[in-house]
Design brief:
Order of helices and strands: EHHHEHEHEEEEHH
Oligomer: single chain
CATH superfamily: Aconitase, domain 4
Helix content: 25-40%
Structural class: alpha/beta
Mean pLDDT: 96
Number of domains: 1
Strand content: 15-25%
Radius of gyration: 15 Å
Shape: globular
CATH architecture: Alpha-Beta Barrel
Number of helices: 7
Length: 165
């Protein structure tokens, strides 16, 4: 995981659930690259076509609520989303995102940003900087950072066991 991420934001609302992030009708798809084509389709069927590698999702409270489907985190990661900033996350989504190597930041930016704004997330100082201000966020646990640094849970375990990737 990069220590600093800078990207264009997409601002979503409160309680963005896993059906919005990755609709259930696509659950039979197993190819992560195909999953990426349906990222946030529950919000807008063309959303994944507008996402660019390095974009950052900004949302309110309860991001990733709903079912425990890990495809929600997978499709965002594979669509190129660099990180998600939200007021709070559903616990299972948080864990699924970490396992996929998708950094999450708990910070309330409600009403401070619009689609297309640029933010910088600094994981060393635990700050999100944006035009007109900055907010602090709680640091990620060292164990979470280690998984994100490795690119996800499977690469982290392989690294720990000394197995080739």
């Amino acid at each position: 995981m990069d220590k600093k991420l800078t990207g264009r934001v997409w601002v979503l609302g409160e309680d963005v659930d896993t059906d919005v992030i990755y609709p259930g009708k696509y659950l039979p798809i197993l190819d992560p690259e195909e999953m990426a084509k349906h990222a946030l389709e529950g919000l807008d069927v063309e959303f994944s076509n507008r996402l660019k590698a390095g974009d950052i999702i900004v949302a309110g409270m309860g991001f990733g609520c709903g079912s425990s489907r890990e495809q929600a985190a997978t499709c965002l990661k594979m669509a190129g989303v660099a990180a998600v900033i939200a007021g709070s996350f559903a616990r299972i989504f948080f864990r699924n995102a970490v396992n996929q190597g998708l950094p999450l930041v708990q910070a309330d930016l409600s009403g401070k940003l619009m689609d297309g704004d640029i933010v910088t997330i600094d994981f060393e100082s635990n700050r999100v900087e944006y035009t007109g201000g900055e907010v602090e966020f709680p640091p990620l646990a060292e164990s979470v950072k280690a998984i994100l640094d490795a690119g996800g849970l499977i690469p982290a375990v392989r690294e720990k066991l000394g197995l080739a990737t």
